[in-house]
Amino acid sequence: MPNATPDLTLTALKLTRSFGNQTVIHDVSLRLKRGEVLGLLGHNGAGKSTTMQMLTGCLLPDSGTIEICGIDLLRHPTQAKAHIGYLPETPPLYRELTVRDYLIFAARLRGMQSADVPAALALALQRCGLTDKSKKLIGTLSKGYQQRVGIAQAIIHQPAVIILDEPTVGLDPTQIREIRTLIRELGNRHSVILSTHLLGEVESICDRVEIMQHGKLIYGDTSARMQQYGQVSGFTVSLRNPPALSALQGIIGVTRVEQLTANQFRVLHSTEQNPSAELLTLAAQHGWQLEQLTPLQARLEDVFVKITDEDAATLRPAQGSARTIEGEIK
Amino acid sequence: MIRLLALRELRSLFSMPSTWFVLAVLQFIFAWFFLARLDAFLELQPQLSQVANAPGATASIAAPLFNVIALLLMMLVPMFTMRLIAEERRNQTLTLLLSSPLSGAQIVLGKFAGLMLFLMVLMATTPVMLYTLQLGTPLDNGLLWSNVLGLVLLGACYAALGLYISALTSQPIIAAIGALAVLLGLWLADIGSSAPDSPWHQLSPLNHFQNFNYGLLDSGDAAYFVLFSTVFLLLAMKRLNNNRVYG
């Protein structure tokens, strides 16, 4: 790896791609810093895989530029591609080779010197938990292990940019956890882009999220901030002996009260003033017999559905919002 | 890089049982034909000895043997070329090559080199077999090696064509049938056209092999082989690059 690697490992500007007369990617721009894990979220067919194919040089964009570590991917593909590790949707495995031979081939293919290969091989095998499978034929491994070999070939040459297309598909829960830890670990030193439609994955490993819909980036932010997106302040409260609705509405700070069941209410309040303490005192005073008080929490799934629905509802203005996202990243 | 790809190709070929089976059967056929020709030669030898300037052992055993191998190669090479790119595409392993720091030319040349190495392994036993004759009779080395050279060049033509057709599709079997159809078509057009100056003769690779088979090194024939291979290798490179353009 070059010594003076720029902080920005991947820059893609205004990528557009169409198949026939159907435009599948509109004006997508991405920036990725060293030590960052970016999650590309989206429904099936949103254009995640196509974008990744363009970022790895497997597909030429109709317009736009891609730079990997400051090298133009379209003008100097061979130099730029040496800095990429790519795991496509279907892991590109030669079933008739052993894990070891395959990984050596992958490392040499990416231009590693043969003297450096044994150490890299041992590290990749160990990181992906394949050490005891290294002499097995890939074709005889289970789907989960094949997926791990796929990840191993993407990281064996220690690339600056690692691009993983749905890396945890087909793995069992323990393996998923291991792979997520691995990705998180890789994200500390390399840049990682991963596409997924598992929101838990984004929550646990991604620093940043970009949501894709119909070939456009419609939302981009840190994953922590995304969870707060559209969040409302409020709580649900269960009272065994509930008062009239107006009594709850009268509490200072409460903006709205909805009755969910006979004993359960959803209380919304302003962000500045949290009326839960007031409510507790009142409940004790009037014998409302409080059972439960849970703050409302937006789950990532809700946020995702909300964002994609909003976009679907207002298709036109979405392009404007994609621009502002781009501005924000800058 | 080209060497790496070629060796990978060879390794994959030799890890399939079917390759070993085909190799074994071919060696058997070559040996069978060799022995049949040797038998015929020994029977004819008393009569041949009375003819002035009679054909020697090389001309009556080696030349027909090489001719048969040339014909067999036409049907066999498509079976080996079919997998080269079509199967990589079907198994999605082509992505690995396309996302690696390789040019389309390197991918094509690597695969071509791998297959040529394999074809040489396949043909290597033939000269060895023929050299056993040296125990009893002097051999015409010139004729023998012009045949070997011709066969290698012919194999390169077949391999380049098969590689190109394999790059067109993602179904290995279609690549095999396609390449076989083109080669058979060229051969049939060659033997079917009776006029000696018919352009079909010039187009058929097997026809250009005939001079090599007689021990005649014609630069025109050699140029044809080189040109034929180069054109199809270039077309295959173009096709791989189009892969990036059209997806």
Molecular structure report:
- The complex is a heterodimer of chains A (330) and B (247).
- Helix content of chain A is 36%, strand content 27%.
- Chain A is built from twelve helices and 14 strands.
- In chain A, helix 3 crosses helix 4 and helix 3 runs parallel beside helix 5 (143-155).
- The radius of gyration of chain A is 25 Å and the shape is elongated.
- With 247 residues, chain B is mainly α.
- Chain B has one domain.
- Chain B contains eleven helices and no strands.
- In chain B, helix 4 runs parallel beside helix 7 (141-168), helix 6 (104-131) packs antiparallel against helix 7 and helix 6 runs antiparallel to helix 11.
- The A-B interface holds A 19, 53, 56-60, 77-82, 84, 86, 88-97, 101, 105-106, 108-111, 153 and B 1, 4, 8, 11-12, 15-16, 91-103, 244-245, 247.
- Unreliable segments of chain B (pLDDT under 50, ≥5 consecutive)? none
User: What count of domains describes the coordinates of chain B?
Assistant: 1
Largest interface (CB < 8 Å): A-B, 33 and 23 residues
CATH topology of the largest domain in chain A: Rossmann fold
The secondary structure category of chain A is alpha/beta
Q: Could you give the order of strands across the largest sheet of chain A?
A: 6-7-8-3-9-10
* CATH first level of the largest domain in chain A: Alpha Beta
Largest sheet of chain A: 6 strands, mixed
Order of helices and strands of chain A: EEEHEEHEHHHEHEHEEHEHEEHEHH
What's the rounded overall pLDDT mean of chain B? 90
Number of structural domains of chain A:
3
- Portion in helices of chain B: over 70%
Helix % of chain A is: 25-40%
Overall geometry of chain B comes to globular
User: Please, how many helices of chain A?
Assistant: 12
The chain-level structural class of chain B is mainly alpha
Let me know the largest β-sheet of chain B: none
**Strand runs of chain B, count:** 0
Spatial gap, N to C terminus of chain A: 26 Å
